[in-house]
Specification:
The complex is a heterodimer of chains A (326) and B (45). With 326 residues, chain A is of the alpha/beta class. Helices cover 33% and strands 29% of the residues of chain A. The chains are: A alpha/beta (326), B mainly alpha (45).
Chain lengths: 326, 45
């Protein structure tokens, strides 16, 4: 089995490392516009990882370059290759979702948004949904950024229009509005989160047919909100610090309204790399269905994927309220 | 003309004050109790 990873930045490099250190690792070929990055990672993880100029014939392609991924994904799907994309750009994810008919026609798989949020957020939403008879609301919140591309996306997300699903229709509200205090797993703790242009709803709504409300928020400081509409005043950092994701699912359980809150903490690029790697192992094991979907898809082995992530150090937690102290 | 300049100046001052409040303001109070527990997943490795 051969896996191609395009882009070895903060997320791509972590995905390569996770794949190379798997039990029974596939051959991983890596390509990037910066040959020095490819040389470094190939030298560190040889012989499993090989640096190349062109991915060539591989079974699965991981797209870990900055967005857009849709044109690349389309080319690889046409060649019959499975694709795992870590894109979190709303327009790009929307175009990836529209590649569904092509993926089905070619009998292959495209996993969109296999990163931190979307990605891990979708897995947590699906896991939490398993505890309900009927799910009618999912609210995602994310904190922190990965590499420079992620920091740029965070900046952009606070200036655009936030997409949400409400009562069977899409709504667009101004990003940076709708402040809500969200409590992430410790030690990240509580942060003010705002509506933002995030891709989570685009992948959650098709995964939960009939759902009433889906929203996504991003933690931000007031400075982030004020400067969101300006060009970035400083170069983005090479990598952010500890991040977190929190998923609140509401619905009916035994005719009573209940709320489940799940979360996870990690450096976003590390967790995103791990999610991309477990998505690849799932595709290689022929466990992934044909078509285009996100990590919240009901046909995926959610618990198995979360267990594999926990084994790789990305551990999810459930908010227990005061029961946790008992 | 003088009235117009005064109105513009007042708007400018209001904008500066609003921006300062927005940047320097404090958030709400986080929950003071409760906690998180790791998900009980079946180890498949």
């Amino acid at each position: 089995m051969r896996v191609g990873v395009l882009g070895v930045g903060a997320v791509g490099a972590r995905a390569v490392r996770q794949l190379a250190t798997s039990t029974d690792p596939p051959t991983v070929v890596v390509a990037d516009h910066d040959p020095s990055k490819v040389e470094r990672i190939a030298a560190a993880l040889a012989p499993t990882v090989v640096g190349v100029d062109d991915l060539g014939d591989v079974d699965v392609v991981v797209l870990a370059t900055p967005a857009p991924h849709a044109p690349l994904a389309e080319a690889h799907l046409r060649a019959g290759r499975a694709v795992v994309s870590v894109s979190d750009d709303v327009a790009d994810v929307d175009r990836l979702v529209q590649l569904g008919p092509l993926a089905r026609e070619r009998g292959t798989t495209l996993i969109a948004g296999a990163a931190f949020a979307p990605g891990l957020s979708g897995l947590l939403a699906r896991y939490a949904a398993g505890r309900f008879d009927l799910v009618d609301e999912i609210h995602v919140a994310a904190h922190g950024t990965g590499g420079p591309a992620c920091a740029r996306q965070h900046h952009h997300a606070l200036a655009g229009l936030a997409l949400a699903w409400q009562d069977g229709m899409w709504t667009e509200r101004q990003s940076g509005s709708g402040r809500e205090l969200c409590w992430f797993p410790d030690p990240v703790g509580a942060h003010d989160c705002y509506r933002a242009e995030l891709a989570d709803p685009l992948l959650l709504v098709p995964a939960f047919p009939g759902i009433g409300r889906v929203s996504a928020r991003l933690s931000a400081t007031r400075r982030d909100r004020v400067t969101a509409r300006l060009p970035m005043l400083r170069r983005p950092h090479p990598e952010g610090t500890l991040g977190a994701v929190r998923v609140e699912v509401r619905g009916l359980r035994a005719s009573a309204r209940e709320v489940e809150v799940l979360g996870a903490i990690d450096r976003p690029a590390v967790a995103a790399g791990a999610v991309a790697a477990v998505a690849v192992t799932h595709v290689l094991a022929r466990d992934a269905p044909v078509g285009v979907f996100g990590m919240a898809d009901a046909r995926l082995d959610t618990e198995g994927l979360l267990a594999e992530l926990a084994f790789r150090g990305v551990k999810a937690a459930r908010y227990m309220g005061t029961q946790a102290l008992a | 003309m003088k009235v117009l300049w005064r109105a513009l100046f007042a708007l400018f001052v209001a904008g500066v004050v609003a921006a300062a409040i927005r940047v320097r303001g404090r958030g709400g109070v986080p929950p003071q109790s409760g906690g998180w527990q790791e998900l009980p997943l079946h180890d498949q490795n």
